[in-house]
Amino acid sequence: MKIVPERKLQVEGLRVEIYADRCQMGATVALRVAAQMERLLANKAQLSMVFAAAPSQNEFLSILSSLDGLPWDRVIAFHMDEYVGVTPEAPQSFRRYLKEHLFAKVRPGTVHLIRGEAGDLLAECKRYTELLKTYSVDIVCAGIGENGHLAFNDPGVADFADRATVKVVELDERCRAQQVHDGCFDHIDLVPRRAITLTLPALMAAQAIFCTVPGPRKAEAVKATVTGPIEPSCPATILRQHNQAILFLDRDSARLINA
């Protein structure tokens, strides 16, 4: 059965689609991403993709990893961010999340991971920057934080004209609190204060952006993203300046957007 959005909006360059629940939303995103993968790989040998790691991506990644016939062996996979000081085996590691929810299931041809535990963080940023420049990004699969962040570009560190591709950032308190809300940490004192993240220009350089944002805790950020001024105080508003970005919502995350 074809899944149809309950509402559609166009806000500058950003398409917005609202679905009845997060399962319908996640399934739709998976099918759209799969179609984009096949479309691009019809004309090129390899495809470069960047993935977010968060509970908001669960349904999308579950369906995407179950689809048959996708040429994952031709995919070069990256991810958006990683906590500083967290090892790849830690339960909160974004590398572990993506391995369990996607990479171990579909086995991309190449996976490039951010080493959050690296002794020299600037060198790690440079290493990952060079990889991203070698394999220009085709598809970004993103989410939006409760504070409106994209990746770990929180309002205090987001820069629409950032000259860096990858950088070390301080996480703001609302971002750190979200990690507790999401069940990733038991207490805010356990949440790392720094992370390595792709910058906003690095994400915006992608040919297509698929942004998956379910749940009531994201409603304020979604409203700001769709209706507020385009400025770093809500980093996700930059999506409205991309010509191939789609924001996928469920009823809960869209509840503050007027019809």
Topology:
Blueprint lengths: L6 E5 L2 E6 L2 H20 L5 E5 L6 H9 L8 E5 L1 E3 L10 H13 L3 E2 L9 H14 L4 E4 L23 E5 L2 H9 L12 E5 L1 H5 L3 E6 L5 H9 L17 E6 L9
Parallel strand pairs: 2-11, 3-4, 3-7, 4-6, 7-10, 10-11
Antiparallel strand pairs: 1-2, 5-9, 8-9
How would you briefly describe this protein structure?
The protein has 259 residues and is an alpha/beta fold. It contains seven helices and eleven strands. The radius of gyration is 17 Å and the shape is globular.
- Biggest beta sheet attributes: 8 strands, mixed
- Gyration radius, rounded: 17 Å
Helix content: 25-40%
Strand percentage lies at 15-25%
Structural category? alpha/beta
Write down the domain tally.
1
Following the backbone from N to C, one meets helices and strands in this order, namely EEHEHEEHEHEEHEHEHE
Shape from CA axes? globular
